User: What shape does this take?
Amino acid sequence: MCGIVGYLGKKEKKEILLDGLQELEYRGYDSAGIAVIKDRKLNHFKAIGKLKNLREKTRDFSSEGFGISIGHTRWATHGKPTELNAHPHLGQYSYVVHNGIIENYQALKKELQEDGAVFLSQTDTETIVHLFEKYHQTSNDPFDAFQKTIERLEGAYATLLITEAAPDTIFFAKNGSPMLIGFEEEDVYFASSDTPIIGKATEVYYLEDREYGYAKKGEVALFDAQGSKSFQKQTLPTDKAMAQKDGYRFFMEKEIYEQSSVISDTMIGRINDEQIHFDELESDFFDGIDAIKICACGTSYHAALASSYLFERFAKVRCDIEIASEFRYKEPLLDDKTLFITISQSGETADTLEALKMAKRAGLKSLSICNVDNSSIVRESDAAILTRAGIEKGVASTKAFATQAMVLWMLSLYLADKRQMISREQKMIEIDAMRRTPKALIVTEALHGKLHRLSKRYLHGHGFFFIGRDIFYPLALEGALKLKEISYLHAEGYPAGEMKHGPIALADSELFTIALMPKTLHYDKIKSNVEELSARDATILAISPEPFELADDFIQTLQSTHPMLEFFEMMVITQILALEISIRLGNDVDMPRNLAKSVTVE
Ligand code: F6R
Assistant: This one.
């Protein structure tokens, strides 16, 4: 979610860092900073907002000659986007940059404060530098202190640390967040992905989880729990555009594959043992609330609709969902015991923002679920929960939807617990399923291959119906929206039980029905609905763990024990189906016609 760059060598460090961070700005752009040690002297600069502000600040600074340097572009997770919260974070004589989330930072911070450390920021990252200096002050050995520091960290990190105590050395460690090391003669580079170092380094080593080490002039040392290791370097690719997409053909494809890991970012620090935690919410946030109204547009509206089943089912709270552009002009009746939730990937959607302002004027408490910190919707809301999907480049939303659905599932459980509406046993079932979600989101080669082959049969016809029941109805809406957006074919999402009330009149062999048939929720009901369509000769693509003999095509899913696991697995299938159809039709997958990523007009 954040971007890291590091450089050790004789070249102009500022330029290498700033150019590298430019390439990583898509990973976060609410603030940026660099720190350079040259001739034993430490310089650092930070600026909020886009990288151009940091460029401006560092205009008169130059850093030629041998030295070490680290840089960071931030996507806020703990603490607002301010200069104090921007990286690098300073101890008394050391600087650190970090990507990831230190889950035990509160306990570490307390311990360090008791020892006298003064924290300047609200970030989890700052604990790393204070911990390092604490150990360094007792051992006087910087590498030993760094090792001891990372042993204490729980959660995800890719981190670089520099210190005046070892002014020619960069310490590095990785667990759960990406980091690589680039090599070119005596020069050493660090980065969160290939792009910042393409054209600079010729060889690369992609760090594995729990590897760490140090780089200094003429020596780069690598370790893991077993001790010292040697580098298995690879030749660095030379095509930057390809590297930005991590080898995928389209950003949308990359983002579909990323879902399995970003969903862990969404959960990290929020699921502890038997509880769901949201640091963002005061413990009395839901006091006095007896209903929920959610407003959103497009894909975010579909996530909202799915969550209404969960809020009512688990938390036993009334939950109404409205399309923001409709809500604004219907003269809605609002009462101040209703919590007003907005969901938005961008945080800038005009209709959603205006709906929020209306609810606030009516005196409602507000909560936003958003992917962009400091966006207009986040700033306007009483509280905000970030979905932590990282920047989504494909116009058709994929990982933003997955992370919204996850936050809403967690929130429904959090509220159910607060309202004492859920048994411990049921809570454990949900938490266990949440932990298994990353696996349900994995795209296997076999699945993608099958959808690729199958897609050639779905390039024509007079329309698609995606059908499902319960939470699979909003998923059907979302599947149809994805297909419409990037294939330009007509598709509709429909509640399966509603087909016979009209749309079944359209059924013939040129009507393609994508049937979401989970085993864990109303299987027999949806099966009958699909049978009705099959009897009218509709072409059926069934997605189900249960073989279905009437299907023309069949994608077999895993035998899951939980509806949400089936939900996420089927979500990925509909996304890849849309992607493959769009590719075959020769469309621009990432920038479909007539669409914009952020809709800031009414
Ligand atoms: C579809 C899509 C749109 C957005 C909608 C709301 O793939 O991305 O339907 O979901 O424009 O945008 P946000 O979530 O930014 O408020």
The chain has a mean pLDDT of 92. The first strand starts at residue 3 and ends at 9.
